[in-house]
Amino acid sequence: MEFTVLAGLGGIGFVLVGVVINAIYLRSGLPLPTSGKGLDATVDSYAGLTDALKKPSVLVPLTWLFLTLFATGLLSALWGGTGDQGAWALVGFAGVLLQNATFTCIEALRFGMATAARHGRGEMAGLWGMSNVLFGFNQAFLAMALLGFTAAGVGAGLVPFWQAALGYLSAALLMLSALAAPYNVEGGNRLGLAGLIGWLGWITWIVAYSVSLLLR
Question: Residue 10 belongs to what domain range?
């Protein structure tokens, strides 16, 4: 199997597994960052979530694997082009690696919060604030991935106009939401709608790019 095909499958796999995990989290009552819940309600929710967190979290490492395969396939397909194509592809690849590292911390923090919620609220307050800000800042890395790989794909003729517009718009919305991250430390939701629309654009963009890789 050619690596570009594997990368295309990885991109689609990332989206499918990510949507399933988030659906399970929402169904279990997990307070997501920027959900707007106060600290007391968050502590009460996390106090009974240790076991509920474990099952979906088993699948989380697969999302990092799939996304890395997708990004590496894109970098391979876009590397060595004319002009700044390779440089933009590296910007996109760096964004993916940074988002994987950041989300590893966010996932680990959820288990830390579940433990802290059962033993003391002081620790929980700090962990919840850290998780909220990390979640917000992570959107900057998604914006980097979108911007870099979109610009490189346009240069290579791999990205059609509609996908380029989607990529640039989603990157702008995610970066705008990331700038508000310090104001979400208490669990607020400033510019949350911009981040949500940007995230939906991000997963749609991944599926479109994955199909392009599969058809190469």
Answer: 3-214
